[in-house]
Amino acid sequence: GSIRIRCHHFLFVTLRCTDIRRLYDVFATVKHLACVGFLEQLYAFDYRPDTANDAKAVEYDAHAEFRRMGVGVAGGVGQHWRVSEINREFQLCATYPPVLAVPARISDTTLTYAARYRSKARLPVLSYLHSNGASMTRSSQPMVGLKQARSVQDEKLVEAIVATSEPTGMVPRFRNERNNIIIDARPTTNAVVNRAIGAGSENMDHYRQCRKVYLGIDNIHVMRDALNRLADAAVDAADVSATASDLGNAEPAGMMARIQSSRSSWLSHLQNILVGVKTIVEAIDAGHHVLVHCSDGWDRTAQLTSLAQLCLDPYYRTIEGFAVLVEKEWVSFGHQFTLRNGHLGHPDRFTVVRAGRKRVPEHSEDIEDIDRDVGETESADDGPQTGSSIFGRFATRAFRGVQSRISSAIQTASDNLDDIDYTDPFFAEYPELHPDYVRPVDPSTGTSAQQKRGFRLGRTKHDRETSPVFQQFLDCVYQLWVQHPTMFEFNERFLLDLFYHGHAAQFGTFLGNNMQERTAIQMQERTQRVWSVVGHDPQLYRNAVYQGDEAKREQRVILPEPRFVQYWSAMFSCHDPAFAKCTEPATRDELTTETDPNDPTVRTDPDELTVKPTNLTDSDLALSSNVWSLDA
């Protein structure tokens, strides 16, 4: 028999053993150690590095960061902003940090009433203040509902945000230009559907000086499904390659063909995010204010605000600044790392199957997914919005879900025809490991669940909140790093290590769902920060071609190029040259300049770079067919 282990960081391991009883013992041990019930049981609470590392760790100070941006400085661009500690005890918003920056002319009482109008009380607060006085704020969706509810306090708060760049701190009465933007990261249909549950999007008749832009970024279930398809292609290709090797077949497996046929749309999702980032950066650089939100404001919103700041401010492109950016936009503003990365584990991820059973594909297109929003546990976002009729799309997805269930039922019936004896006494001792084991009825729900085959991210209801949100953010940072190689102090190794530690649970930085939860278990006092690794050996993560002060002086603001994206081969543990033809990054000028096609040091051919125009799908990429090697 064998045990197949599939890791979040794309490491796939198969353990084979002729002694089936010993194999089951290993399986039960791994399952017991991996499925923990509390964060305190994770390795981060026992990890104790050398004390010399702790002194070099980057510490995030909200007050210091606001001062750096100029908040509250008399005569500066932030003179009409102030720092509020109304959320010191997390009474205003449980998922916001204790220290917030808000317009100076808005009182704490007004903030209290404005918070009631936003989902999870995540009212508009300052995320970034640019050197020209333009601001980027973030929030959650407004609670508009079917009755088109409004909040005067929320409208006054947004108006005050727009007025902070005016000399007097007030918007001129007769100014009618709508240059400022309210960014709704969701597809338009999703925002409209959310009205049925009392949420929705702003009625722009009540928000002066602003216009609304929908970005059409899909929800966490769609992103999780895209990653699952990509990983499935990798596993299948690796299995084919291993089988061919065992048979002495030198012909490599068609990894690229499998990636194309998987229709993961991973690159398309990255492009949508970068298009939104470009919209935000151009608006703020032109002196306009931008308010960003999705549904609950802790997934897509965090991606957009952090990537936009990375483009706008060269400080965040340094190693120290990037650490501050992650602590500010992701950790303190309540990205749900525990839920999204699945740190606690769950027994449903560990299953036993018959050796001859075929895999029935499972994707998040099932009907149970259509009423779930991206990362928001009570929202009504659904999957990709590509058709013209919402009811037509719902019907299509419902049909796919029924079709999937029929296929699963047929496969199960076929498996039950196998005349196999499972009377081994071992199963009397470990009944939950029996291939046909059915869980007892859950008293709280009155339902039982049949064990299914294999672990796939988000396969069970417990895992339905998992999604590669932070991983997508790092992938987008990598795309910017490739497009602007001299503008970043850190190198690719820095991003790869952050991706690894996001799942390794060795440090407390990426544990917990919000600041209130981390404070309750004393996360900062009891665990180490991931930035201590960087401080221990900063040269390991330093970019050799970084221009430093010259980059800050000559090109303060950079723009993403959504058309120029590629698979991040190192993150997927892939060393196939067809994924990334060159290990050194190239700027956009280098990608488009006429050069000698025979020169191997210059990347000019789009096919060589796996460049993907916006109007193409992943399957349209002209990639060669090679073996994708996986390593640890």
Q: If you had to describe this structure to a student in words, what would you say it looks like?
A:
- It is a single chain.
- The protein has 632 residues and is α/β, with parallel strands linked by helices.
- 36% of the residues lie in helices and 6% in strands.
- A 5-stranded mixed β-sheet has the order 5-6-9-7-8, sandwiched between helices. It has a two-stranded antiparallel sheet with strand order 1-2. It has a two-stranded antiparallel ribbon with strand order 3-4.
- Helix 9 crosses helix 10, helix 10 runs antiparallel to helix 11 and helix 15 runs antiparallel to helix 16.
- The two termini are 23 Å apart.
Anisotropy-based shape: globular
Total beta-strand segments? 9
Low-pLDDT runs of 5+ residues are 357-388, 412-423, 447-459, 575-632
Q: Provide mean pLDDT, rounded.
A: 76
Keywords:
36% helix; 632 residues; two-stranded antiparallel sheet; alpha/beta; five-stranded mixed sheet; single chain
In short:
The protein is 36% helix and 6% strand.
Task: List strands and helices in order, with pairings.
Layout (H helix, E strand, L loop, with lengths): L1 E5 L5 E5 L3 H15 L16 H4 L7 H8 L11 E4 L15 E4 L4 H8 L9 E5 L5 E4 L13 H12 L16 E5 L3 H6 L16 E5 L5 H27 L8 H7 L4 H20 L4 E4 L6 H13 L6 H14 L4 H5 L48 H27 L9 H4 L39 H15 L8 H13 L10 H6 L2 H4 L4 H6 L12 H6 L33 H5 L13 H4 L23
Parallel strand pairs: 6-9, 7-8, 7-9
Antiparallel strand pairs: 1-2, 3-4, 5-6
